[in-house]
């Protein structure tokens, strides 16, 4: 009797990450600095005995290790271009070669596992091969004892044996191991490389996919080609026909860029209601909160680059020309200080939302905070307004008394030659500082109030002061503004030059500066008032009633 047996199902489908795994140095994306070095080593017959492949996940560490093993054991080699058709190449590709042994460091991390491995070193390469290749993946998972057991073999390896240690966490490998290996650092792949590779795969698979979908997948892959291929596989399974950006966003739980543009538009327009509606509509589609926060912060980062960088910088992110243009337009309409504050708030708020037990509520609170935030104000302007208000109050109310009328004495007015208003020849330093504060920048005027004037003759102004204030005033742009202000104030046809000298012995205000003069004058007035108070009859009468007593401190209180 004859029976036919048919298995219930067949696992013949290969995911993209396996199907399109690179099989030669030429097909590896974005790691030319590694593939060229290994190819040259084979060509020049200077193959090292141990290598460390370090880098982020999914960038080709294990794939290049297998390609290197093929190059060493190809029947037509050693060669930098293995034929991929001989028995050795096929067995290595299928993982059945006796010449190549792949070990998972996470599950073989004990010293006993390494000792068993060392025992296998004594055997010769398999018939028909030249090298034994040991690929230890995630090698950082080995215990310290296991590393120590491996040291001797790495230092004095058996003939025709090559070790390749692959890791995503290089800092966990002992220095004693690293010093015995040739190290290669793998890089995260840029968006252009990932997007180009995905487009090739889509073409080979006869998939119709738009550019924006490729951009979304490439951005979410975060530099990993394997992650990008896995995401493309997932989107392909979700979509029935052509792959569009809308379908890709639904499949991956991401947000469309148009939603981000509308959301930032509502925030910049100070419209929290519209912003909250957009959040609600977006989350109604089942979007992942973590991915949305990631895209949200990335969008603000791109706005920052658009404001202070170049459009070409944004094109490196795989953005279309229309998106770049709209991004630049949004960024240019925002004040530079406001945009920087919003970027900082978005980043810190997103971090807090990710840690929150209620991330969506935290996100809504963040959006409202961004949309209702007060615009930033220049510190110099605020100080100028405060000073103006104080002057008006003094003019309206008069000088406020510091004690009762019986003890009050009018403070002497500073003479024109007091340190509060330094003068050199016919140059009025105080008038110049006030002119800078009203016409140029109040912040620059505050710096000038803390430096002293040394000379202002022959079209050259020289000042000295604390290092911090001199450093600010010495900036090229600030010196240019001050030179223009001098020319306008003095109404001179020739230009002025300014020079500032730092004095490390001064920390607050230089002797002879306006601020130093004001403080000195206040101290003088305070001392006079203190002495007047001590000599007042009422105070002297108290001292007579308490013989031997003395006044330890006096506190002058201002009355309104």
Characterise this structure.
With 560 residues, the protein is an alpha/beta fold. It has 4 domains: 16-185, 3-Layer(aba) Sandwich (Rossmann fold), CATH 3.40.50; 191-252, Helicase, Ruva Protein, domain 3 (Orthogonal Bundle); 257-372, Zinc Finger, Delta Prime, domain 3 (Up-down Bundle); 423-517, 2-Layer Sandwich (GMP Synthetase, Chain A, domain 3). It has helices at 16-19, 32-43, 61-73, 87-94, 111-120, 144-155, 175-178, 191-204, 211-221, 225-238, 245-252, 257-268, 272-283, 289-308, 311-315, 321-332, 336-355, 359-372, 379-397, 429-439, 442-448, 467-473, 476-490, 514-534, 537-545; strands spanning 50-54, 100-104, 132-137, 161-167, 182-185, 423-424, 427-428, 452-457, 460-465, 497-502. A 5-stranded parallel sheet has the order 2-3-4-1-5, covered by helices on one side. It has a 3-stranded mixed sheet with strand order 8-9-10, with helices on one face. A two-stranded antiparallel sheet has the order 6-7. The chain is elongated and about 115 Å long. The termini are far apart. 29% of the residues are buried. The model is unreliable at 399-423 (pLDDT under 50).
């Amino acid at each position: 009797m004859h029976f036919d047996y048919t298995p219930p199902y067949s696992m013949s489908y290969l995911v993209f990450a396996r199907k399109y795994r690179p099989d030669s140095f030429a097909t590896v994306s974005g790691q030319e600095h590694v593939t060229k070095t290994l190819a040259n080593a084979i060509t020049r017959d200077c193959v090292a005995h141990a290598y460390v492949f370090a880098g982020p996940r999914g960038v080709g560490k294990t794939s290049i290790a297998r390609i290197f093993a093929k190059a060493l054991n190809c029947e037509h080699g050693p060669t930098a271009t293995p034929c991929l058709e001989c028995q050795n190449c096929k067995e290595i590709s299928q993982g059945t070669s006796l010449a190549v042994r792949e070990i998972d460091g996470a599950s073989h991390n004990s010293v006993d596992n390494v000792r068993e491995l060392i025992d296998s070193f004594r055997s010769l390469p398999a018939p028909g091969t030249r090298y034994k290749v040991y690929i230890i993946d995630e090698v950082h998972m080995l215990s310290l004892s296991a590393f120590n057991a491996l040291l001797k073999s790495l230092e004095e390896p058996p003939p025709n044996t090559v070790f390749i240690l692959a890791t995503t966490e290089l800092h966990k490998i002992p220095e004693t191991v690293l010093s015995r290996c040739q190290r290669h650092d793998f890089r995260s792949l840029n968006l252009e490389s990932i997007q180009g590779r995905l487009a090739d795969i889509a073409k080979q698979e006869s998939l119709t996919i738009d550019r924006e979908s490729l951009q979304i997948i490439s951005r979410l892959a975060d530099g990993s080609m394997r992650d990008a291929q896995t995401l493309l596989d997932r989107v392909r399974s979700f979509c029935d026909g052509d792959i569009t950006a809308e379908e890709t966003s639904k499949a991956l739980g991401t947000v469309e860029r148009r939603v981000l543009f509308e959301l930032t538009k509502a925030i910049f327009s100070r419209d929290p209601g519209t912003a909250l509606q957009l959040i609600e509509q977006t989350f109604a589609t089942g979007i992942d909160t973590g991915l949305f926060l990631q895209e949200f912060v990335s969008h603000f980062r791109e706005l920052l680059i658009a404001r202070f960088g170049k459009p070409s910088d944004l094109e490196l992110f795989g953005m279309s020309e229309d998106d770049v243009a709209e991004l630049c337009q949004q960024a240019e309409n925002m004040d530079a200080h406001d945009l920087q504050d919003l970027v900082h708030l978005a980043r810190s708020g997103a971090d807090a939302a990710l840690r929150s037990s209620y991330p969506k509520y935290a996100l809504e609170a963040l959006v409202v905070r961004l949309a209702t935030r007060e615009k930033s104000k220049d510190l110099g302007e605020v100080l100028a307004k405060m000073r103006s208000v104080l002057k008006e109050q003094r003019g309206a109310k008069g000088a406020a008394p510091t004690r009762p009328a019986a003890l009050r004495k009018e403070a002497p007015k500073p003479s024109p030659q007091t340190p509060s208003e330094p003068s050199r020849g016919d140059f009025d330093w105080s008038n110049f500082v006030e002119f800078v504060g009203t016409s140029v920048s109040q912040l620059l005027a505050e710096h000038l109030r803390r430096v002293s004037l040394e000379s202002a003759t022959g079209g050259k102004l020289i000042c000295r002061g604390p290092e911090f204030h001199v450093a600010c005033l010495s900036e090229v742009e600030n010196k240019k503004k001050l030179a223009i202000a001098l020319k306008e104030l003095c109404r001179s046809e020739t230009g002025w030059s300014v020079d500032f000298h730092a004095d490390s012995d001064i920390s607050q205000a230089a002797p002879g500066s306006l601020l130093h003069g004001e403080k000195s004058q206040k101290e003088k007035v305070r001392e006079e008032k203190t002495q007047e108070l001590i000599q007042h009859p009422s105070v002297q009468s108290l001292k007579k009633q308490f013989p031997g007593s003395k006044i330890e401190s006096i506190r002058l209180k201002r009355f309104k």
